[in-house]
Amino acid sequence: MITHAFVRLGIISMVLLVGSTRLFGSWAQLNGATDDEVLRNATNQGSVFFLAGINQIHDGMSMVDLGQLELAKGMGEEAQRYFNAAREQFQSVSNRLRGSPDLQRALDTYLRQVRYEEKAAALAFAEEPPPVWIAVRRAALSGAFELFGSIPVRISALAKHSAMFFGSVAERRPTAQETALLLHDIATSLEFGAYVSVVFATPPTPPPPERPD
């Protein structure tokens, strides 16, 4: 089976993508783009729950490698609970934006003013920007409601995929192809959320000018 250190590496690398910004965010967080504490708390909690679900998948896959299939199934079920909690948090973001035109308008203005080319350059893509970055940028330019509305859908898709993977794991070991497909789905989801955080990351605040002696 494919090594599952890849999953943990994916989490670390996605988190570090925005490590140089003033307000740190790991997965689909608003960072400094708004002062609305309800939205910021929801994205913060959603990030925590989502990454906890990813960790459960990682640990479950490790149990599969060790032949502990019942334990693996239980960890897959725990991942579902975390994904459900994450989806609820991000759905609450969409609901709040729907119910607050002023807040939605403010975030839409922010998203239109983002310098996407500069952010892409800072990410130092090896070649052209990857499809996931392009998808995030397209959703962002369509507005905050469109962007955050896509996140619960993405979480649901990953949750469904992982449920299928672990649903029969107590009876048989997953194939290498099944494992590879789930790992690819995980990596893409991590990438998507990390890029959302990059979009909302504010530039570092410049230091105050020095006073003359």
Offer a concise description of the structure:
This protein has 213 residues and is mostly helical.
Relevant terms:
single chain; globular; disordered N terminus
Question: What is the secondary structure topology, with strand pairs?
Answer:
Elements: H1 5-16, H2 37-65, H3 69-99, H4 101-113, H5 116-123, H6 131-142, H7 144-167, H8 176-200
Description:
The protein is mostly helical and 213 residues long. The protein has one domain (5-200). The protein is 72% helix and 0% strand. The N and C termini lie far apart (66 Å). The model is unreliable at 1-24 and 204-208 (pLDDT under 50).
Tell me the span between the first and last alpha carbons. Answer: 66 Å
Largest sheet: none
Shape descriptor: globular
SSE string, helices as H and strands as E: HHHHHHHH
